Amino acid sequence: MHALRHDILPPSGVEFATTLKLTPSTITGSSSQEKLPRVLTNVVVSRSNLLRIFEVWEQPPQISTYIEDERERRAHVRKGTEAVEGEVEMDEGGEGWVNMGSVKAASKKDPSMVSRFHFVREHTLHGTVTGMESVRIMSTYEDQLDRLLVSFKDAKIALLEWSDAAHDLVTVSIHTYERAPQMVSLDSPLFRTELRADPLSRCAALSLPKDAFAILPFFQTQAELDIMEQEQNHTRDVPYSPSFVLDLVNDVDERIRNVIDFVFLPGYNNPTVAVLCQSEQTWAGRLKEYRDTARLYILTLDLMSRNYPIITAVDGLPYDSVSLLPCATSLGGVIVLTSNSIIYIDQAARRVALPVNGWAARVSDIPMPPADKDLGLCIEGSRLVFVDEKTFFVIRKDGMIHPIEIILDGRTVSKLVLLPVIAQTTIPAVAKLLNDDLLFVGSMVGPSVLMKTAREEVPLELPAQQTGATTINFSDSMDLDDDDDLYGDSQTATQATVGATSGTSAATKTRSIIHLSLCDSLPAYGPIADMTFSLAKNGERFVPELVAATGAGHLGGFTLFQRDLPTRTKRKLHVLGGARGIWSLSVRQSQRVNGLSYEKATGPFSAEIDTIIISTDANPTPGVSRIATRTAKTDVAIPTRIPGTTISAAPFFQRTTILHVMTNAIRVLEPDGNERQVIKDMDGSLPRAKIKSCSICDPFVLILREDESIGLFIGETERGKIRRKDMSPMGDKSSRYIAGCFFTDTIGLFDIEATETTPAAHADKNTSTLQAAVAAGNRSQWLLLVRPQGVMEIWSLPKLTLVFSTTAISTLENILVDARTPAALSLPQDPPRKPQDLDIDQILVAPLGETSLVPHLFVFTRSGNMAIYEALPALTSTEQADPPLPNLRTAFLKVKFHKVVSKTFEIQRVEETEKTVLAEHKRISRTFVPFVTSPNVECTLAGVFFTGDRPCWIIATDKGGLRVVPSGHTVVHAFTACSLWESKGDFLLYSDEGPTLLEWAPEVQLDSCLPYRSVPRSRAYSNIVFEPSASLIVAASSLQARFASYDEDGNIIWEPDGNGVSFPSADCSTLELISPEHWVTMDGYEFASNETINALTCVSLETTSTESGAKNFIAVGTTVNRGEDLAVKGATYIFEAVEVVSDPNWTPKRWYKLKLRVKDDTKGPVTAVCGINGYLVSSMGQKIFIRALDLDERLVGIAFLDVGVYVTSLRSMKNLLLIGDAMKSVWLVAFQEDPYKLVTLAKDVRRRHATTVDFFFAGGDLAIASEDEEGVLRLFAYDPSDPESRGGQHLLCHTEFHNHKECRSTITIARRTKDEQLIPQAKLMSGFTDGSLSTLTPVDEAVFKRLQLLQGQLTRNVQHTAGLNPKAHRIVRNDAVSKPLSKSVLDGQLLSEFEVLGISRQNEITRQIGTERALVLHDWSSLIVPW
Question: Which of 116, 1374, 1415, 1421 is deepest in the core (most CB within 10 A)?
Fold first, then answer.
């Protein structure tokens, strides 16, 4: 069987992060304009195989449109009834009084700059990242930019740099150590390589198994390079000298074994490394014989002489030492973090310890002060970060931040002081100081946060109780969005205090306080523990919604994914019609002064409410257009109807009139719909071809006719009329064009560079007409045209100067730059030219973004290819080698376009010969419609909607980049953003359901590949299942409880017996019944504090209580943990969700309870449960039992089978049962009812760990899919006819495919193909511990052969990020076979790179494998639907 493995969601969260100056904007400080935000630095983050680059912007805070709207609303409030200053604050406080002075002072304070993340690029790599560092190489001195060093799981290091030409990362070099003798050992897959770089970038080190480092030295000066050249006798153009492997045991000291952690120390002449190791390993049970076994060695690397002297050796460190933190040069030394204490060690081997609980003195003999009697901190999983030279933060695994001050006595450290908690933040995976005052805390299980630290000196004469205030001001003029609940109460304004006395001046002693404030966060939901499908409403339709249990600890909860962007229908507006177009316009009555119409000035953020809707239909012939307004009762009135079809409409003359374009005329209408002017589109007295599309940009109008000719009109504000504009600079009057649009640049990105020969080439900057003076500001207007031969030109307005020309758009190349050619010719052909597949059908330039708008170029071709380009400032290109030609252009636009998204749609094209009324009615128009929306108070988004039979939203967010999200409609004929009902988040669209007013569902996050909503629950869930009969969610929460150990007689064995010593914690579970409509917990069941849920499923069991003889029950399998001296027990529970009488005030209206039907105690843990033919299958230890539910009150055993060691999963289909085992791999078993027995059909005889097993089938083929804890996907075949299967007793493993991440949960869903079969195919969906989701989809033989050949071409012929090998990434090491078994599964991550290539490159690759580009893209787009 053949299949495609494809990720539908990338990994979530941050595991590694580094800060560096990577992109040129960090050097210049901002993009070319001063008014834009300043770029402070880059942050590069990674998780698993996803690498993302962000810029940290410093910008003034966003002025909320809410303030303007309030001002507008207050204008309607009767004078004297508005709230006084401070009244609102008084109401919120609820105290009934407020200090007016403080309110006024606060309101007048100028808001400071805020720091925000801004997304730049992301890459999915063919390797798992295990470390990132910033390095400076010799070329850094030329461009001032840092380079990025990334290490990978299979012992590779890649050196990457930013290329401005490609606007992307490019690979400088890749260094592989996978063939080093240390990596060949059998246990090397269990080892994780770690990367560290010298602070002065003299070298980098990668840890290898068997206590070795791979050292990569970098040249820093020309002198080093010269010495190297003399030794090598040949010139070098690479920035590094040959790397080598340093074996610590043989080359340095034989006592350096079992390396725990290593760091480079700053301030030394040669690179110096501190290595924490444990030469004699021990554990808690051997502490009487071996304790304090960890050692610290500080050694110098002399890279030239290959000499490695040890300068400091410290032994006798606690056995539970986990990590190192280097101190600043002024202080020297290193901090060692252990489970129970923090130890500072200086260069002279002095140790200063700080215990954080009572265990420290019990597990170690290091001299340390006694721990506070109240102190019982747990600092495993903590991250340390220095915030200044003598203060570092310990961020514990529950997010609590403890500052620790280093107290000096002269030059030596005398003690460490632990200060109270100052804040709670996210669960940390990495903590980095970005610059002096910005702290980044990355998390793998939830949002990552950017915080600002500020120091303040306060006099020491404070009352004692005030110095210990321990809260944090997180409401510092920031919009927290969803994160309020994560970071405590956002109203708290008490200052966070940190400090020790500094006796600098004798007069006033001061102490230093650190304030923390939240700047921004990167949203993430963390690992997927389990998932299930539930029903949700999208508009009027029910759609499947994937509910995943995500996160950990206090960041746990549910994440709800949908395939399409979820919307809510507000009203149906059938009276409007609009099958051929809808436009919602904001038009105001103009004010005339001295005969001149002008519009009263409004604030930049007070976008007007729409006042008019124009809609048009093709039926009845010749079409009808309606002008609708809103009546007082929020209904729609249609005062004006006009025969004929509208092509476009827009407000004109500064929104005082409507410009209305029909198929044969251009009309100027008054706001009430009366006609002011009409221009018939005639050539003398001859009618011209029909107008097929147009673009309106006050004061210009461009029309495009069906015979590919164009017309250009300009409005004259003084007369309030429009006239034709001279187009002679653009060539012959009869020139042909296939697409065109206007664009208004409001951010000043489109900038002109004129040649010296014509200094006044661009006189457009001096506005000549009054209309331009009224409309100008910082806005410039441009005209884009596409000629039939595939040339895109940009003309400046109003003078029509050609400023940009490119032919690369016809093949959708990745970068579009100015070809500097004069205007192309495009005269009409005889016979008329036939439309080509690669003709550009639609083109648009529109801004996209959230807080900063960036112009994007949207292109759609007739063959169904959509490409979206981002406009970027181009460098001045004065190095033109060609001699100036007489017709050479005089002005050049300093802009280039970089492709960010490429997508293919299947087009069902009707024959061009059909020109009937029916064909016109069936015609589907695919157009780009720009919109601006405010889904909530804090957020304003500019996006584009793409209409047609594959409608989608195109949206760019600050932290997620550009996303194309399907709208979920079968077809959308017309679309417009509409604020007629005074909501800035409404849209009006004409779909297969007719004209509908809708809005986005609240709190939808759009920064990932699938739209999702987070439901924070402040606890994690281990299992989740959907109960279909009542449409409820049943979930098992995972909590911590104190654990005490008892003997057989029930006597407690140990109790806490000292200060700072407490009971250990153990997992415990509760069961919750949740309504997916409102996410309220209706009922629950608490298990014993030492009982955890292993398995939870919904089973259909035979019962006499229903007519059908079957009913849904919730089956639960648990483990009862009794400590290490007593055997583990378990239990099986059967629950039923029963409806109860609800209180009328409750929501939801229908209320359910969990009713316990059966509790069955067992001698071993119940690790997996499922149902088969109305019976319950459960595992107990090494046995499988099949039991029947008798009288709804007890379970009766009817069959059993001895199986492996630990059953991880059970799956049933008809009377077949799949058993996955932690040691014995996969078993296929049949269940027979007469007589009852279980028969083993086949098993996998190799020792493999199966964490999940599933049936995978398509047509008449069946495979068994299993995944293990290392992330290896295996497909097994049951084939008794194959001699290797020993008559069917052995399952044959045909395929092994490496995912490199552990799968926790799988769901099998139905996949229905076009050729509808009786039994649908099975599609397997897997959720992983890094938060990614992937699908396994069956592939037909013919399609598989095509895509497999394409995969080979892409592996060889495409540059992969970081120079990684996609083929080797998927190969599983298997010594039992001669060649890898990865042939039968296609790698979706590699195949997705094909869609991004330019068309010419796609044709070249498909030609080599003897197939067509369109066929391959059709195969690909049919396979990658999420569900």
Answer: 116
Q: How far apart are CA 998 and CA 1011, in angstroms?
A: 17
Q: Which residue has the tokens 């075949």?
A: 1277
- CA separation for the pair 602, 584 (Å, rounded): 20
Give 1000's strand partners: 567
Task: With beta carbons less than 8 A apart as the criterion, state whether 377 and 357 touch.
Answer: yes
Q: Letter for the amino acid at 156?
A: K
CB 674 within 8 A of CB 658: no
| Tally of CA atoms within 13 A in the half-sphere of 859 that contains its CB | 32
Cα(986)–Cα(999) distance, integer angstroms: 5
The two structure tokens encoding residue 1256: 């995978």
Q: Which residues of 1234-1332 form beta strands (DSSP E)? A: 1236-1243, 1252-1258, 1261-1267, 1272-1277, 1292-1298, 1303-1311, 1321-1328
Is 1111 strand, coil or helix?
A: strand
pLDDT, one tens digit per residue, over 341-357 is: 999 999 999 999 999 99
Q: Which residues contact 868 (CB under 8 A, 6 or more apart)?
A: 856, 857, 858, 859, 899, 900, 901, 902, 954, 962, 964
State how far the Cα of 718 lies from the Cα of 849, in Å rounded to an integer: 35
Closest by alpha carbon to 988, among 575, 1309, 1283? 575
Best CA proximity match to 725, nearest among 624, 648, 799, 821? 799
First vs last Cα of the chain: how many Å apart? 20
Rg (CA), the chain: 35
Least Cα distance to 856 among 874, 875, 843, 841 occurs for: 843
Query: What is the C-alpha separation between 523 and 530, in angstroms, rounded?
Result: 20
- The identity of residue 687, as a single letter, is P
Please tell me the predicted confidence (pLDDT) of residue 1424: 92
Long-range contacts of 296-299 (CB under 8 A, 24+ apart): 296/324, 296/334, 296/336, 296/345, 297/252, 297/253, 297/255, 297/256, 298/265, 298/272, 298/273, 298/274, 298/334, 298/347, 299/252, 299/272, 299/273, 299/275
3-state secondary structure 1163-1214: CCCCCCEEEECCEEEEEECCEEEEEEEECCCEEEEEEEEECCCCEEEEEEEC
Distance CA 1368, CA 128 (A): 12
User: Which residues share a beta bridge with 345?
Assistant: 334, 351
Q: Label residues 1217-1246 b or e (16+ Cβ within 10 Å = b).
A: bbbbbbebbbbbbebeeeeeebeeebbbee
pLDDT level of residue 915 (50, 70, 90 thresholds): low
Report the b/e string of 718-732 with b at 16+ CB within 10 A. Answer: eebebeebeeeebbe
pLDDT digits (tens, 9 = 90+) for 1065-1094: 999 999 999 999 889 999 999 999 999 999
Place of tokens 């929460």: 1037
Residues 612-634 pLDDT 10s:
999 999 887 788 999 999 887 77
Instruction: Return the axis-axis angle of helices 1388-1396 and 1413-1423, rounded to nearest 10°.
Output: 130
Name beta bridge partners: 1229: 1217, 1240
Three-class DSSP category at 476: coil
pLDDT at site 880:
46
Query: In which element (H, E) is residue 1097 found?
Result: strand 1091-1102
d(CA 681, CA 687): 7
Buried b (16+ CB within 10 A) or exposed e, 1320-1330: ebbbbbbbbbb
Question: What does the DSSP assignment read for 636-667?
Answer: EEEEEEEES-EEEEEEETTTTEEEEEESSEEE
Quick one: pLDDT at residue 481? 40
